[in-house]
């Protein structure tokens, strides 16, 4: 069936293009051993985020939604020697697994996990400037996260929001689900705010049918 085909094609690309990655494999194993939900980005999406951060030559990355640190590690690997990534996680159990994974990946000097509800920890970042922001936490709060992301962005910053398609539900204007509504409000804000120029892309793969929004903060 179609879902199996998407999985097979994802597997084809990841085994061809980034086959040997014991560190990333170990992260996924540790997450599964700790019973974390398997809602991290897929290997191809992780590598894609990594390449986007490299394209941008990002030096200061902010991530909202850490889980076990899988996407954090992909992103932090794109950083230069003096680069830094701050990642925000609500669940202390997730944060603990992430910190262990980050240490095992040798990235503990480059990544800081801030534990708490992101809307409580984001104010502590006031005054800092990020050039790459990845939003991947509780979707009902997406519009708030976008407002913070814009506030904490350098001119030219890249802002990415994950899971904006939700198997197509995003296009249903009457949808009642809080996550779908959060994503719709996020898209409306992207459309209205003159500071950012954006688009969204649908994706299929091992994580199903979804997609991401990408915006660039104007100079
Ligand atoms: N970015 C991760 C990856 O790809 O490896 C996946 C993140 S997962 C989809 C979403 C995470 O956001 C979960 O670990 C969840 O506990 C966290 N989260 C939920 N509500 C939050 C909040 N209010 N503040 C910060 N994190 C939150």
From TrEMBL:
Protein name: O-methyltransferase
InterPro entries in the cross-refs: Cation-dep_OMT, SAM-dependent_MTases_sf, SAM_O-MeTrfase
One matching Pfam family: Methyltransf_3
CDD domains for this protein: AdoMet_MTases
Keywords: Methyltransferase, S-adenosyl-L-methionine, Transferase
PANTHER family documented for this protein: CAFFEOYL-COA O-METHYLTRANSFERASE 3-RELATED, O-METHYLTRANSFERASE-RELATED
């Amino acid at each position: 069936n179609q879902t199996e085909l998407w999985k097979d094609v994802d597997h084809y690309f990841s085994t061809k293009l980034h086959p040997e990655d014991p560190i990333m494999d170990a992260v996924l194993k540790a997450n599964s051993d700790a019973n974390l939900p398997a809602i991290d980005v897929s290997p191809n999406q992780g590598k894609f985020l990594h390449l986007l951060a490299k394209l941008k030559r990002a030096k200061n990355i902010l991530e909202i939604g850490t889980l076990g640190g899988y996407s954090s590690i992909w992103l932090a690997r794109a950083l230069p020697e003096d680069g830094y990534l701050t990642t925000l996680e609500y669940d202390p159990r997730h944060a603990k697994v992430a910190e262990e994974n980050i240490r095992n990946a040798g990235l503990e000097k480059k990544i800081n996990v801030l534990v708490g509800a992101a809307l409580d920890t984001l104010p502590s970042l006031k005054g800092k400037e990020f050039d790459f922001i990845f939003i991947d936490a509780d979707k009902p709060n997406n519009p708030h996260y976008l407002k913070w992301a814009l506030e904490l962005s350098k001119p030219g910053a890249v802002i990415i929001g994950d899971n904006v398609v939700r198997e197509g539900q995003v296009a249903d204007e009457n949808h009642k689900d809080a996550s779908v509504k959060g994503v719709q409000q996020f898209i409306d804000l992207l459309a209205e705010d003159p500071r950012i120029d954006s688009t969204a892309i649908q994706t299929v793969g091992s994580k199903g049918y979804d997609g991401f929004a990408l915006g660039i903060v104007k100079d």
